[in-house]
Automatic annotation (TrEMBL):
SUPFAM superfamilies: SAICAR synthase-like (SSF56104). The keyword ATP-binding applies. It comes from Pelobates cultripes. Residues 34-449 form the PIPK domain. This is Phosphatidylinositol 4-phosphate 5-kinase 1 isoform X3.
Amino acid sequence: MERLNKARSVTGSRVSGESRGSSRHRRLFWKLRQRWKLLGLFEIDREHEFYPLTCDLKEGLKDAIQDIICSDATQSALTDDDYSAKLTQGHEGYVMRTYAGPVFSHFRQSLGLSEESYSRSLSACGLFLQFISNSKSKADFFLTNDKRFFLKTQSKREVHFLLQILRKYIQHFQAYPHSLLVKIVGVHSISRAQDKKKYFIIMQSVFFPDERITGRYDIKGCHVSRWTEPEPEGSRVLQVFKDLNFEGNVICLDQQRQWFLRQMELDTRFLQDLNVLDYSLLVGFQLLHPDEKNQNWSLANLIVRTKRSVNGAGSPTTSHSASVPGTVEEENSTDKEDDGTEFSGTPEMTSGGRIPLKKIGPQVSTVSDISNVIAQNRRLLPNYRNPLHVMDGPELRYFIGIIDIFTVYGLRKRLEHLWKSMRYRGQEFSTVSPSQYSRRLCSWAETHTV
């Protein structure tokens, strides 16, 4: 009996020790998770609550894109059926649905994004990242491992609204290919066993690549609740600041300022026509390296940039110029033009020393085409991996984009406006009419740029 009691005592001590060890492990993991959350971005590993979901997302998205590749959806014109298309794919334990797949495939092609490259980013073996946002919404934000695409959960109502306005959204980019609006490249839903159906959108990250970005701001053009308390100096916390934090700063765009102000007017007017408000202007800062400040003006690079600006908005283009930080390395040795000719970094010159327009592309072969490019407010896009959202000033590179375009000025927002008008009398708050919201954000852009 004494031996038995001793054995029980030893066993109890061992269990108690294991329990304490397990408890210490959990506390350590919890502290680590809390630190990751403060950083705003961390990997969704096997211990993470969203790990099973992201694994299903990877597999489902890969199959959905493969279906598009196999269907060879390269038609030049979209149909009504394309906008209402819904692809349902069953998998073990979940069902994936893809909405308006042909439309988004067509849009990705217009951005120069191949389906193979898109699939690689979404289904790569690297873990998805979770972004902890200070947004008031309850949305979950996932980021592909290469940080190129955001996956954001949306409500059923928001997805329904997006699909309703999708034709106008695509038409806006057809009219203004260099729009600052966030590029939404996919809409899906996933239904998992014993879990509520989740809707989500996929969009290009405005802050890509983010390795050297030193400051991030979310601007709404107002003051109420638009301050983020900075972390102590030296902190590694990833923060997105707001309007009041920006005061004292300016965006120095030099010659590109007028283009930027014009595009802000075009994009906010479009959102105003959709009766949308509460969107944000994202602004990121990045210091230019000395060899980046003047490298954009070489003749070869000008040709590459002109080709990209006219023929395709978002794809990496071939450049045989010297490699510098921030430029895109070519995937192939040559880049095919629309007319089947090959483009190289060394342009052919006419006897008068001019560059023949046909080498830039058939779209600008006539004066009327050039006028159309001007009417579309196009600019000379930089030769970077995120050209539509990148603008270079004399000293800084800016990452700029308009996000969160799903809030409609309906009855709920009108009542919120009345309540805030009484609570914040004489102050600027976010919930105002779409026309006032548009004017105010454009005014902010004008007073904060040089």
